[in-house]
């Protein structure tokens, strides 16, 4: 299979993204140690990558994967909310990752998430913004846990999950704030398919190359019509984003974030079983977190 | 896990509902022998329960289950349509269980249906109005059978099933008027999950306590956004409710109800296999029901 | 089980359709050798059948199946686009099979697709327009491959698949242009259920007779409410139809169709594995199709 592109530009590398090109497909490896938190650097690099890829007519498909087998994107860095939001404004003019993610959904580029490890909060919302999601059956773990902090997910989860999973399952996922296996995520419609880990990469690469080989006009026509039905309008993403932004600034939310951070939140080991761990978080409300594991 | 509530009021008991409180969770056991038909008493008690729970800020989650292992809620009592509808008006001002059910869906309270046994007609519509539905894998049976009597389901099934199951499966379920196993109900999206019966109660209680432990502001924010997308407007529920109410009063419907009642409808034994039984109902149209089993 | 109809008219036979009547159920066997392409004859016969069935109050349910075990409806004949569209206008006044298919969806008649063999392109769109879809687990194969030719599906696939499968899976199916097994089609919601081939016919016939035995007023009421929610408006089908019609006339599309036809497209043997085969189609863009299998 040879590419038709006469000149194939090398994509720019980012501090948190490693990018390789194979014909019309860019494979983007997220590498933001220690646990792929979504902070200003990662948002900045995502913005630059999307801008670069959209400007090159030869690029048709983006594949996102992670360098960390345990974390795809863990979630936003709650200590840097203003900073990462500001980075998003470079692409959309608005300080909101919900609108950044929606920009990707609406792009002519076809985006595929190849998920290994944990993908929670804004990580889940990022893969929901991708056009397709395939996850490693054994290792991928999903969570939309903002409710544990009394918050509405701000990056579009309510928009996507409600449409994909239906009312009952979307409510369960967001109200429980719990972890979900790849198998259950597939059954619920959160992802396209759970695929055995040793076949995931070849499956996604074959699919990406296949799509990149078809006429780009078809991608655009199909995405436009599907998005017209199933992608929520900008104002709904903006509303959710604003609600999270305002909610996260309240003293109550700041107190909950601080208690969680003090107890191990945003630490690699703690978050391996974040779903379980959050079930104990309410105990911190009384100020007594000493008996949390 | 200790509750933060200083005073925990005891919930009122109803003639058809037994209620116990455990922190922010009310577990409501439906007990309306002989087969949990939805009649005026059960509607009256549901209205009182919802009013009481909403007025107590300490209550976050309602869990509904049945005292009868064979019937969760069988369906409405077709001999008392006007009477049970009138009871619903106490809560919403309108004589319609569709609007009562929708009121529950829109409430700040999180509602979970823990389903064992048969849940058909308005019983199915009640659990569809709950925020989540978990069913015993071995014993739960689902049916939306109003079509067998030439009627549109009036309690919101068309609204919920179409959105949850999609056009093809919603049409199948309502046009076939047949019984569906918990396994198939899960596959179709009618329920969140089918869970082995011996694990169901502990699963639901853990989930309910977990949700009740998270800040109530999150419940409200999440429910509002999900409902804005996936909960049909009041006027659509009212339309369906009116159509059933008018349809059920026609001579043709009354004749069909009478023939069915005469042949064993609304009797505990007959309804164990109601789906199968209804397949023979059309024979009654000719007035000859003698060969019905 | 006896029918209530005093006189049971014999349905008309078509050149490409064999029709048999059993009470309120018409079973329609598609027989358009060599591979059940959707051309002007099949569209003409479908129009006549629908008109005849709608005019006979005794007919309640249409079951569509195929005489060819390998092909249900393969797809449109791309060499006869103008001709088959013109035939559709007899029913709806507009030269569009999307509107013909939507007419069937909106009809008082209940339609069930009993799928064995391949159903791709407009074939998939025809079964999506049916009220229910049941497929042989071992032999049914699904594809929505217009994207391989740079086209939006014109017969309603974008409307139906997006609503049934959700954004991610609908994009995957249409962008990949690949083949999907009955098992995966069920998991994605493309069909109601995949059923072992040796049980499929008896399952569908029982269901059809059951539905036909219930009062017709219920069919109409249920279909109207479900369609009000889940069936896209006429203008959206028309838009997609126009986009395909215009796109297929462009020199680029004509060149792609010609290259494909030259390489074996619309030939029975080639299309057995059309999904795989289309993955090599882009190579034809350079004019070199010599190494295509």
From TrEMBL, chains A, B, C:
It comes from the Bacteria. Gene3D superfamilies: 2-enoyl-CoA Hydratase, Chain A, domain 1 (3.90.226.10). The keyword Isomerase applies. Keywords: Isomerase. GO terms for molecular function: isomerase activity. PROSITE patterns: ENOYL_COA_HYDRATASE. The keyword Nucleus does not apply. Pfam families: ECH_1. Belongs to the enoyl-CoA hydratase/isomerase family. This is Enoyl-CoA hydratase/isomerase family protein. It comes from Leifsonia tongyongensis.
